[in-house]
Amino acid sequence: MKASVLRWSSVCLLAVAAAAIGLYGASADLPVMDGVPTAEPEAVGMSSARLERLDGVMQAYIDREEVAGVVTLVARRGKVVNFSAQGHRDVEGGKAMTHDTIFRMASMTKPIASVALMMLYEEGRFQLRDPISKWLPEFADMQVAIPAPEQERLTGAYKLVPAARPITVQHVLTHTAGLANTYRGLTQPDFQAMNAERQPHDTVGDMVERLAKLPLNFHPGDRWEYGRATDVVGRLVEVMSGKTLDAFFRERIFEPLDMRDTHFYLPKSKLGRFAALYGPGDDGKRVLTEPPTADSRFVREPHVYFSGAGGLVSTARDYFRFHQMMLNGGELDGVRILSRKTIELMTANHTGDFGIWLAGPGYGFGLGYAVVTDLGPSATPRSEGSYYWGGAFGTIFWVDPSEELIGIMLTQMRPYTHLRIRDDLATMTYQAIVD
User: Fold this and answer.
1) Residue 41, class by beta-carbon neighbours within 10 Å (0-12 exposed, 13-18 middle, 19+ buried)?
2) What is the pLDDT of residues 212-269, one digit of tens each?
3) Helices and strands (H and E) in the chain: how many
4) Could you please report the per-residue DSSP string of 203-267?
5) Do the beta carbons of residue 292 and residue 271 sit within 8 Å?
6) How many CA atoms lie within 13 A of 239 on its CB side?
7) Which of 126, 239, 352, 435 is paired with 34 by a 20 to 30 Å CA distance?
8) Mind listing the domains of the chain with CATH numbers?
9) Distance CA 247, CA 419 (A)
């Protein structure tokens, strides 16, 4: 099923229903949604006919039952030119995908947490090269796990040596701190054991204290490795500001930017718009793994664990507004969140030629974002200097300053790496540029 963008031909028949859910037929292709400025593609140098290919490619994934449904949004020069809701948000419940469906954003939380910390940077709270132990003393005197020398007797799986340098704010923003993680490293079993210790009423502060007790996988600043560093970023926001991350996000980012459906824990009153989560079955077709109910960890009590690394739920509308602010140089609708110069700093490559293995060759990493550094090796049509990230449930976004372009694709599929749906979004977006 395709719950497509509203057409002129259906506006009269659907006006009452559209008003009830906040989606109105504005133009030939786009819904009217408060806070989402729209334009015809041709007005911003894109082709309407070519953009229709995007919906077709997304629909093919739905027809093959590889995903349940998709919301896509493409904006150029501040105007949304594609905003489609296709398929179902809940197949089993018979609920069609809508433009205001609420998704688990997972690691697409990280850019927001990074912006929050850089807001405090602009208030003079820290410098990037400051050691995080100034605010989180548990990270003083860290040790690094190294392979055991062949002829040296040890009581464990590795040897410990003092860290060559302290972990800095820049290290945790760029994933170069060496922190233990679920992906790789000698300390992987220790990290898994630490995760098993989590209690229902734990806070991120409790987790960060336990994380600091584990050895590092490498000396801070020596290479790039993905993990929980942005939870440390979020904890720094809490300690520096004196607010929970939930309160800081709400008061300093979500309310000023009118991100009305972005939460750490979804209010039960909005459960009717929450998407189900799926995974691939043995045949590659989607299988329900979490229904959109109050039992989801993104809904249920206690509401005390505010993860900067991956805790938010949101909508395409809200996420577009956040990144249009970034593309605008830190301002949206008269509200300034950051300086243009701070955004330039955040979206520069801070990791040199380190391998950004999760993104692949041709990418570096800034303060909360992967950055395209070399068009050929990256094998992406996104311009050099574009910055992006994705989420574990299949979501993705990017911002392309050169083309003044934002792309967002929201679906709920974990794991998702057997699909090329995220790459296809970029291909179908850029092939529609005709100016």
Assistant:
1) buried
2) 999 999 999 999 999 999 999 999 999 999 999 999 999 999 999 999 999 999 999 9
3) 12, 18
4) -HHHHHHHHHTSPBSS-TTS----SSHHHHHHHHHHHHHSS-HHHHIIIIIITTTT-TT-BSS--
5) yes
6) 19
7) 435
8) 8-106+273-295+309-430 (3.40.710.10), 114-246 (3.40.710.10)
9) 36
